[in-house]
């Protein structure tokens, strides 16, 4: 066989093949590089959108949350399987549903959360959103079980703690809820949402100064956080703050137009109604509460302020209005306890007692854990409830029941201990049990004048007058007026009280002491007139 030229053929075949292979490899490498570069660019864009979404969500206003969601929608177009972005979207929609009450946000939250869970996201947003959705749906047992499972797995995040706080609040375990809200707010101090939630919980309990402080921390994180600003105004007004001090804030909030969701519009209207009430115009307050309820029918503060306005008018509908507010938010002590106080002042003792019985029914089965690990009934530790109940019983002439309630308030040894000591002491004074009354009143009205309760000093002064100790009684009455002046009591009211004491001394055969009393007490009100 002729094999001439075969070597040349092999060389030509090998060279061409090699060049072809090199070309193919070059194309593949170029495609790989292009794919890798594109993938890197996509990843950078995804990361940029996720950072932008988190930054917007951190501001906390509805418009900010909408902007964050827009960033996530753009991200999903690039990377539909971004599991943590899906979890963040679920968290945003949950906030829009539970805090800003936007229709349809709950369905969007569930959709995004289902996708995040299917992809295996383990972010705090995923777990927090799931618990919050269960709580919002009233599935507290399921939420409790999930929290316990997550805790056993070591899961921990501020958003999960916030979800736990809302669950505890729904269950009526308010002292534990306060602690959880506080921990969440401290851990996520950059996010105004957490401090705002804590402030609302404190406001629901009637703890106005603490609530105002929490809202202040929220606005420190974002000075333009609308929910914190308006609810801070409401807390100040409930606490009796001069309405002129919040006028500028309310005027600025009303200019925000499209930024205000119906829920925010409702709360602003409630604050305006409270301004009208503070100025003694309940007829102006009622249409504002109606406007608030029209904007958002579930606004319990609107129901509460409406009831307050009716009580200020001594309207018979006040009782039903307070009951409606309590029914809307049963675990908010402010609504029942303050409502009972106002109905009692109106002379509706039966209505006041009905609110307290509803409160007792809500918290009857709630247990709390003491510092030494024991489980006790929450009501046994609730001095505010027993003080309110004692006051209603006392006004109804049921003194024995009132004393029993005050004893329970004393046994609770809560923050209202001094108030309980005064209440029981004043009742014992009315029953002419001077020894028992003096022991209790002296504990909160020390002879040094260092006590903070003007009414306790006044009661002790009356006790001493009744026992013929006029000089010592005048000293206690002086402390009472001095404390009252320090706490902002108008000068004309102090003058009226001073003159009443002067007349008491004169009718008791103490004309010289009456004259000396007015000389001593005069500077307390004359310098202010």
Quick summary of this structure?
It contains 26 helices and two strands. With 529 residues, it is mostly helical. Keywords: Membrane, TPR repeat, Transmembrane, Transmembrane helix.
Which labels suit this protein?
529 residues; 26 helices; 1% strand; disordered N terminus; mainly alpha
> What is the H/E string?
HHHHHHHHHHHHHHHHHHEEHHHHHHHH
Q: Name the poorly predicted regions.
A: 3-7
Query: Hey, roughly how much beta strand do the residues contain?
Result: under 5%
The description of the largest β-sheet is: 2 strands, antiparallel
CA-based gyration radius? 33 Å
Structural class: mainly alpha
Give the helix tally.
Answer: 26
Strand order of the largest sheet: 1-2
Please state the average pLDDT score: 90
| Cα shape | elongated
First and last CA, distance: 136 Å
Helix content: over 70%
Q: Can you count the beta strands?
A: 2
TPR repeats: 192-225
Protein name: Cellulose synthase
Keywords: Membrane, TPR repeat, Transmembrane, Transmembrane helix
InterPro entries: TPR-like_helical_dom_sf (IPR011990), TPR_rpt (IPR019734)
What is the fold's blueprint, element by element?
Layout lengths: L5 H54 L2 H17 L4 H16 L6 H14 L5 H13 L3 H13 L5 H14 L2 H14 L4 H13 L3 H14 L4 H13 L8 H8 L7 H17 L3 H14 L4 H13 L5 H11 L4 H14 L2 H15 L3 E3 L5 E3 L5 H13 L3 H14 L4 H14 L3 H11 L9 H13 L3 H17 L4 H17 L3 H16 L3
Antiparallel strand pairs: 1-2
């Amino acid at each position: 066989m002729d094999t001439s030229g075969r070597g040349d053929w092999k060389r030509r075949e090998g060279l061409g093949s090699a060049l072809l292979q090199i070309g193919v490899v070059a194309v593949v490498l170029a495609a790989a590089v292009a794919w890798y570069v594109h993938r890197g660019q996509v990843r950078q864009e995804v990361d940029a959108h996720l950072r932008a979404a988190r930054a917007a969500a951190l501001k906390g206003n509805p418009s900010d949350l909408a902007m964050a969601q827009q960033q996530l929608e753009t991200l999903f177009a690039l990377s539909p399987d971004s599991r943590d972005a899906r979890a963040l979207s679920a968290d945003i929609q949950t906030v829009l549903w539970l805090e800003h009450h936007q229709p349809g946000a709950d369905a969007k939250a569930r959709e995004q959360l289902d996708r995040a869970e299917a992809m295996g996201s383990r972010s705090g947003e995923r777990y927090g959103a799931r618990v919050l959705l269960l709580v919002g749906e009233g599935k507290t047992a399921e939420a409790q079980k999930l929290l316990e499972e997550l805790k056993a797995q070591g899961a921990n995040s501020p958003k999960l703690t916030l979800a736990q706080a809302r669950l505890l609040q729904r269950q009526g375990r308010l002292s534990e809820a306060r602690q959880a809200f506080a921990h969440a707010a401290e851990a996520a101090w950059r996010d105004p949402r957490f401090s705002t939630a804590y402030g609302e919980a404190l406001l629901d309990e009637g703890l106005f100064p603490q609530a105002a402080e929490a809202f202040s921390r929220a606005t420190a994180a974002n000075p333009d956080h609308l929910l914190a600003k308006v609810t801070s105004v409401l807390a100040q007004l409930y606490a009796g703050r001069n309405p002129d001090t919040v006028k500028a804030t309310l005027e600025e909030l009303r200019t925000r137009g499209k930024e205000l969701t119906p829920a925010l519009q409702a709360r602003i209207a409630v604050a305006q109604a409270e301004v009208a009430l503070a100025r003694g115009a309940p007829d102006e307050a009622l249409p504002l509460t109606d406007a608030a309820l029209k904007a958002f029918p579930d606004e319990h503060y609107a129901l509460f302020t409406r009831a307050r306005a009716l009580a200020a008018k001594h309207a018979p509908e006040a009782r039903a209005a307070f009951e409606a507010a309590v029914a809307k938010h049963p675990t908010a002590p402010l609504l029942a306890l303050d409502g009972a106080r106002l109905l009692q002042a109106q002379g509706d003792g039966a209505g006041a007692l009905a609110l307290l019985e509803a409160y007792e029914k809500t918290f009857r089965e709630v247990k709390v854990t003491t510092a030494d690990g024991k489980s006790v009934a929450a009501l046994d530790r609730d001095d505010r409830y027993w003080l309110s109940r004692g006051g209603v019983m006392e006004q109804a002439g049921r003194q024995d029941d009132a004393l029993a309630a005050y004893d329970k308030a004393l046994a609770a040894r809560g923050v209202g201990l001094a108030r309980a000591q005064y209440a029981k002491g004043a009742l014992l004074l009315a029953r002419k049990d001077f020894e028992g009354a003096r022991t209790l009143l002296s504990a909160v009205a020390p002879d040094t004048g260092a006590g903070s309760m003007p009414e306790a000093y006044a009661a002790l002064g009356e006790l001493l007058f009744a026992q013929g100790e006029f000089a010592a009684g005048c000293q206690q009455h002086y402390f009472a007026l001095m404390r009252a002046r320090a706490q902002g009591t108008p000068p004309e009211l102090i003058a009226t009280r001073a003159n009443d004491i002067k007349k008491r001394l004169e009718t008791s055969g103490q004309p010289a002491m009456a004259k000396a009393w007015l000389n001593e007490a005069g500077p307390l009100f004359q310098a202010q007139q």
